[in-house]
């Protein structure tokens, strides 16, 4: 093992996994939202996470490591609205075999609540659906009431 | 695939023009039995006498039969039935559904649930596309073109869905100019101004309702609607700000026409009514021809 790698391993604050996915660069305040959106609170895989870790880019970041879990792109892209800078490392036998970034989908179904209290989706059992117009700030147009849900207004269902 | 009319932006420029042609045909000959043997459901979850009578007259002149309700007090929604279930049931009976609903997005949702076409006759503050098409027909009839028009919009430009939809529709045509006259609280929302900038369409904003209207081809007046305000104080402050009077029309262009979606409260003084530039009552009549055109287009009858 080279000197560099040894140092790197020593710096790890969340223990390494053998097989699975590491999701890094999650804004710390959105960690639990990411967990909910990906349904990690409902699976039986081993999961470790760290939060309020130092990050030059985000100030304070979180990281999630999920053993034996490999996400489909459609699945992982759902977190793009709340963790636009998230990076995924796919781990096989302790080694990173692939890196992925998240990309906001054009259409978001479910997940987000419409900001408009008079929208049909807030008054009857209708699955929300938004067109993603921009990701910074997040700008979503409701398929139903056609109103925009922007940035801080966004709430998860 | 069934055709609906939910939002004005669902239609292309070509479809707008087709509706205009059909409306002109119905104006010449309003009674045509094209809907004979068909049943149209007219579902007004929120009362609107004007829009409902216009639709129901259009359906009658086309020879169709009408079922439905005019007042939500008489409908199953008071018993707690969901919109989903009402639409599922009614779409078993009718060939077409015309609906008005107080919630925004209700019409789009109904169109997903219903196997028969839906015409949105207004969903809260969101869309009222048949109003926009009749406004367009009135503009085309009085100006002879949709191109190079200077359109003044006055009053409640923030909550007024008719001005938003008209802006979107008229932006499809060549070099319109928009002038917005509104108090600070009721200005045209940023998203529409951004849309105009992105499409290189000129617009100007004013606070004063003065002789700048001499430039206008169309003055589109709107009512400040109490029910659109969440804060009643805000309504009290702005309700009487812009009133159009006959004396203000002296230097306006000869082709200029005044439109208003009606009902008016006090924003157009009654002394304007006898001026030949007042067009709002004819505009309402145009609504019937336009709705006949929309129904026949949606039902593929012409």
TrEMBL record, chain A:
Say if the entry is tagged with keyword Plastid: no
Locate the residues binding Zn(2+).
114, 119, 142, 145
Cofactor stoichiometry and binding? Binds 1 zinc ion per subunit.
- Aspartate carbamoyltransferase regulatory subunit C-terminal domain sequence ranges: 108-149
Task: State the coiled-coil residue ranges.
Answer: none
Q: Which GO terms describe its biological process?
A: 'de novo' pyrimidine nucleobase biosynthetic process; pyrimidine nucleotide biosynthetic process
The record's keywords, sorted A to Z, are:
Metal-binding, Pyrimidine biosynthesis, Transferase, Zinc
- Gene3D superfamilies attached to this UniProt entry: Aspartate carbamoyltransferase regulatory subunit, C-terminal domain, Aspartate carbamoyltransferase regulatory subunit, N-terminal domain
Q: Where are the transmembrane segments?
A: none
Cofactor(s), names only, from the UniProt record: Zn(2+)
Say which domain of life the source belongs to.
Bacteria
Description of how the protein assembles with itself and partners:
Contains catalytic and regulatory chains.
Q: Which protein, by its recorded name, is this?
A: Aspartate carbamoyltransferase regulatory chain
Q: Which organism is it from?
A: Tangfeifania diversioriginum
TrEMBL record, chain B:
**What organism is this sequence from?**
Tangfeifania diversioriginum
| Biological process annotations from GO | 'de novo' pyrimidine nucleobase biosynthetic process; 'de novo' UMP biosynthetic process; amino acid metabolic process
- The broad enzyme category this protein falls into is transferase
Print the organism lineage. Answer: Bacteria, Pseudomonadati, Bacteroidota, Bacteroidia, Marinilabiliales
Q: Which GO terms describe its molecular function?
A: amino acid binding; aspartate carbamoyltransferase activity
Residues binding L-aspartate, per UniProt: 79, 161, 223
Q: What does this protein do?
A: Catalyzes the condensation of carbamoyl phosphate and aspartate to form carbamoyl aspartate and inorganic phosphate, the committed step in the de novo pyrimidine nucleotide biosynthesis pathway.
Q: What is this protein called?
A: Aspartate carbamoyltransferase
Q: What is its EC number?
A: 2.1.3.2
| Family to which the UniProt record says this protein belongs | Belongs to the aspartate/ornithine carbamoyltransferase superfamily. ATCase family.
* InterPro entries in alphabetical order: Asp/Orn_carbamoyltranf_P-bd (IPR006132), Asp/Orn_carbamoylTrfase (IPR006130), Asp/Orn_carbamoylTrfase_sf (IPR036901), Asp_carbamoyltransf (IPR002082), Asp_carbamoyltransf_Asp/Orn-bd (IPR006131)
Q: Which residues bind carbamoyl phosphate?
A: 50-51, 100, 128, 131, 262-263
